[in-house]
Write a structure and sequence with these properties.
- Helix content is 93%, strand content 0%.
- The protein is mainly alpha-helical.
- It has one domain.
- α1 packs antiparallel against α2 and α2 runs antiparallel to α3.
- The longest helix has 62 residues.
- The two termini are 52 Å apart.
Length: 149
């Protein structure tokens, strides 16, 4: 009877840990999503601003009969550089979001397996644990191979 209570206590701890990871995923996802949206908005704003500067100085030089469009070209080019940098930041934030999400997902999956193993009879637990270890080793090996490519 006391053995059953210990298992239930461990399961409660596992569930608390799983819940903590899920909450971290939600928080990090919302923060990263907000950062990705902001960087995309900044990129689009600078892109439009650069285009408007180009057009404005071209129209200004036509109306004033001048050939001085250099400030517009320089300002527009700088604005477009900012837009490109913001788009790179956007791409980087999405990549980091995906990596963090995958790591937390794998932890949650592993804890779920541990929970399910604890529900099995003692005689079956050793075999299932060996299968989980072998599967984890294969997953890690595939991940290492993929990162080395």
């Amino acid at each position: 009877m006391s053995n059953r209570i210990a298992i239930d206590s461990n399961m409660k701890d596992d569930f608390k840990l799983i819940h903590t990871y899920i909450e971290e995923i939600k928080q990090y996802y919302s923060i990263s999503k907000r950062h990705a949206q902001m960087s995309f908005t900044v990129a689009i704003t600078f892109c439009i601003l650069g285009f408007v500067l180009f057009i404005f100085y071209i129209l200004y030089s036509i109306m004033e009969n001048t050939i001085s469009i250099m400030p517009g070209i320089i300002g527009g080019a700088i604005s477009e550089l900012f837009a490109g940098t913001a788009l790179l930041l956007h791409k980087s934030s999405l990549t980091q979001l995906n990596l963090y999400y995958k790591a937390l997902y794998e932890k949650e999956r592993f804890l779920s397996m541990v929970y399910l193993v604890n529900r099995l009879s003692k005689s079956k637990q050793d075999d299932v644990i060996k299968d989980i270890i072998n599967s984890t080793i294969k997953d890690v090996s595939l991940m290492v191979e993929k990162n080395n490519e």
